[in-house]
Amino acid sequence: MQEFEYVAPTTLEDAVRLMAEKGSRAKALAGGTDILVQLRGGRFQIDRLVDVKKIPELNELTCSEAGGLTLGAAVPCYQVYEDPTIQRLYPGVVDSAFLIGGIQIQGRATVGGNLCNAAPSGDTIPSLIVQGATCIVAGPNGRRNIPVEEFCAGPGRNVLQEGELLVALHMPPPEPTFGASFLRFIPRNEMDIAIANVAASVLLDDSKQHIVSARIAIGSVAPTPVFVKQAGDLLAGKEANEASIEEAAEAAKGAATPINDMRGTIAQRIHLVGVLTKRTLRTAISRAREG
Amino acid sequence: MADMIHVRTNINDTDVDFLCESRQSLLEVLRDVLGMTGSKEGCNDGNCGACTVILDGRIVDSCCVLGVESQGKTILTIEGMASPEGLHPLQQAFLEEAALQCGICTPGFLIAAKSLLDREPNADEARIRHWLAGNLCRCTGYDKIIRAVLKAEDMIANGANTGSATGTTAGGAQASGDVYND
What we know:
Helices cover about 35% and strands about 25% of the residues of chain A. Chain A is α+β, with helices and mostly antiparallel strands and about 290 residues long. Chain A folds into 3 domains: about 5-50, Uridine Diphospho-n-acetylenolpyruvylglucosamine Reductase, domain 2; about 60-170, Uridine Diphospho-n-acetylenolpyruvylglucosamine Reductase, domain 3 (2-Layer Sandwich), CATH 3.30.465.10; about 180-290, CO dehydrogenase flavoprotein, C-terminal domain (Enolase-like, domain 1), CATH 3.30.390.50. Chain B is α+β, with helices and mostly antiparallel strands and about 180 residues long. Chain B folds into 2 domains: about 5-80, Ubiquitin-like (UB roll); about 90-160, [2Fe-2S]-binding domain (DNA polymerase, domain 1). Chain B has 6 helices and 5 strands. Chain B has helices at about 25-35, 90-95, 105-120, 125-130, 145-155, 175; strands spanning about 5-10, 15-20, 50-55, 60, 75. Chain B is globular and about 50 Å long. The termini of chain B are far apart. The interface between A and B is large, with 36 and 36 residues.
């Protein structure tokens, strides 16, 4: 692996300064399961690696009915899916965190890192989008918030400027009639990169028969994960039934612009978006009714 | 030559000091600096699990951890799995069930399986297969490995000695044990 300086600051201010000093020649290290492999493979050259795991704000994990979920960017996946409150309030996020890599990867890899890595197939990103997550970012010019659907800029690229760090993700508290779900398709049973993945969330009315609003996000079918606003908007005011679900699935398929590659074909990926949209919507509705 | 960094850690119940470069992985430190060659390099990119060690109570791929990140941590490697009294029941079961052929993946499978049985001594076959999905074997077809882990569960339930190094109990992570089951 290339040579670099390793630093492990204990405050956010120090981390931002250490990042900013080196500009594009600095990278953040959280779980390391992507960045260390990329450095070894020579994807980019850096002078400094900033380990962010000793910064308190990036280790925050708070979840409550009143405050929602604040998930520090350095919190590994297992802490997310083993948390009983997150399991109860954010099962869609748990769906994603539980699917990333194997147990070894989940012991290190973070949801924040998965987002920053900005892979088109990143398994947590559609889930974050349908939860309406906000990215809390710190940089040389202070803090700013970015809606998660605007965070990825292209394969492996995000909107962070030089010196900026993802601090945490915040998700609003779920309403009692809110439900979300995530699914991906892979040829193996475990440990693979999605050929397509989909997350869906719905908010039902008090009768739990009609959809108030819905969000659908699709992955592995475009340069970034895509928030398909029009597919969710179609469902607003509709009855929560198979006809509505079918209509939303068609809209989601229309938003997929995949490529052919060794993992799958364009036709297969578009078909999968339809299937997975229907399945995630059914689960989201059922979770909303249970909630 | 790059600057060397001093790191103090605990490996297999022994405090260890070493010098390494910032770019060296924990796997490279174990094998090349400390001469502990039980952990294997397979893919070197977090896919195969041959380099699995227990770091503060959680299994990780040591190829995806920097050596400098192990400062102040507790590590269990395959070298700490057997006790002075004999093999760990998993090691014995792997021998009896012929759960290895070339053996490169075996240390990783043993460490990963130990981590599961320490938490969930009655894990069923589906759970074992799921837990070991991050370990690849290109020889056995996995069935013998799964049979060996199930056999080790029986051996442990019947009182077999599991007195290996305590790397798994440090860090408090093991104690919670409430692993999410789907």
